[in-house]
Write a structure and sequence with these properties.
By secondary structure, the chain is α/β, with parallel strands linked by helices. 39% of the residues lie in helices and 15% in strands. A 7-stranded mixed sheet has the order 2-8-7-6-5-3-4, sandwiched between helices. The chain is globular, with a radius of gyration of 20 Å. The chain binds 4'-deoxy-4'-aminopyridoxal-5'-phosphate and glutamine.
């Protein structure tokens, strides 16, 4: 009678719990452990006593929506109508769920590229849709031949996560062009663009679906303030999509949450006046480089990390154990928690890879690396 018979507790919850129980350094679940920006805390202190604690309008706090529209214009040169094309969500997770449940019907097929973030497939299943999982290339770049082969007359959506969790890869202009060529032939297919790491790229500036003329009107773009402002627990994100699509998504949103918590929306709206998103990438670039350098002496092999705050490593030189067991061993024997990559595949493809989150204080990264280089 389960609607999600194959779904168990998310790997993020499992690994964080295990890390906590064993007192391990937690580089598994993706969240920062450094202090929040003092300016955001000050804004929050001032706001808490103000009259801002009742429901906001269903689609979001107008002040916040205006700031997001300004930001989207400045950064991506896209004009967004806040009344018809934007929705504030309780994190990207709820935005993704609402999008899929608004647009996917029984037996519609949704293409998901593996390894993929864990919330997509259950959201498709709850909508009665069918997930068609298409593996990325071994170097985690998209394979447009297999993507094209997976398209049928029932394909309704493709989900693209860029920058990519868990692999840390990002899409190039050529990737977008290849996708555009394919989708030109299939006008029924919508794109769900999960861009929660849009402010964290290292090797080239982020290319957003907002900037792709051919795609932007058929794409629903999900963003997350949790990721871009280091407040994952606040659970505030937003969607941008064309009016007809957004009209449908709002129908689901209003009966899932109606509106998102007012305090965080007010605080973020005020904070957006002072925050500099350029600092976000810069800070994470330094952390990525620190972590990479610290692991140079280890037997782990580091995969390219173009964006996000995740570093994927191969441990093939260390052990032949499968990645789920190796991740548990790493916690129990060595005191460091990571995420095994196989859990992000439909068929649990195990290439003996782990994902480390480097959104941590330098001290935490140094302590973790001290343990990892000894393995
Ligand atoms: N998509 C991806 C790729 C993620 O890594 C995450 C986790 N932050 C989410 C969506 C969900 O974001 P949020 O915490 O805002 O719900
Ligand atoms: N996005 C985070 C990660 O990839 C975790 C989100 C969650 O715990 N659901 O680790």
């Amino acid at each position: 009678m389960s609607k999600l018979p194959n779904i168990s507790t998310s790997i993020f919850a499992v690994m964080s719990k295990l890390a906590h129980e064993q007192g391990a350094i937690n580089l598994s679940q993706g969240f920062p452990n450094f202090p929040e920006d003092e300016r955001l805390l000050r804004i929050s202190e001032q706001l808490i006593r103000q009259n801002i604690h009742q429901y906001t309008p269903m689609a979001g706090l107008p002040l916040l929506m205006d700031k997001i529209a300004q930001q989207t214009y400045t950064r991506y040169n896209r004009k967004v109508n806040t009344n018809t094309e934007m929705l504030i969500t309780a994190g990207a997770t709820q935005g993704i769920y609402s999008t899929i449940n608004a647009l996917i019907k029984n037996s519609d097929e949704v293409i998901i590229l593996d390894p993929s973030y864990d919330s997509y497939e259950p959201s498709v299943a709850m909508a009665g849709g069918i997930s068609v999982r298409v593996p990325l290339n071994p170097d985690y770049t998209p394979n447009f031949n297999t993507i094209e082969e997976a398209i049928t007359s029932k394909t309704k959506m493709i989900i693209i996560n860029n920058p990519h969790n868990p692999t840390g890869r990002i899409w190039t202009v050529a990737d977008f062009e290849a996708l555009e060529t394919i989708l030109d032939k299939h006008p029924q297919i919508l794109v769900l663009g999960d861009e929660v790491y849009e402010y964290i790229t290292f090797t080239q500036p982020h290319i957003s679906f907002h900037t792709r003329k051919k795609l932007k009107n058929r794409t629903i773009i999900a963003s997350s303030f949790g990721k871009s402002l280091h407040v994952t627990g606040w659970k505030v994100g937003y969607l941008i999509a064309s009016e007809t699509i957004m009209h449908e998504i709002k129908k689901v949103h209003q009966f899932l949450v109606f509106s998102v918590n007012s305090f965080s929306q007010h605080a973020i709206a005020a904070y957006l006046d002072v925050v500099d998103f350029e600092e976000v990438s810069k800070m994470y670039l330094e952390k990525r480089n620190l972590f990479k350098n610290l692991l140079k002496e280890s037997r782990f092999e580091l995969m390219p990390c173009d964006g996000t705050y995740f570093q994927v490593v191969s441990y093939q030189n260390i052990s032949k154990t499968n990645d789920v067991d190796f991740a548990k061993e790493l916690i129990q024997k060595h005191g460091v928690a990571a995420i095994p990559i196989s859990v992000f595949y439909n068929d649990q493809t195990d290439r003996q890879m782990l994902r480390f989150c480097f959104a941590k204080t330098d001290e935490t990264l140094i302590q973790a690396a001290e343990k990892l280089v000894k393995i």
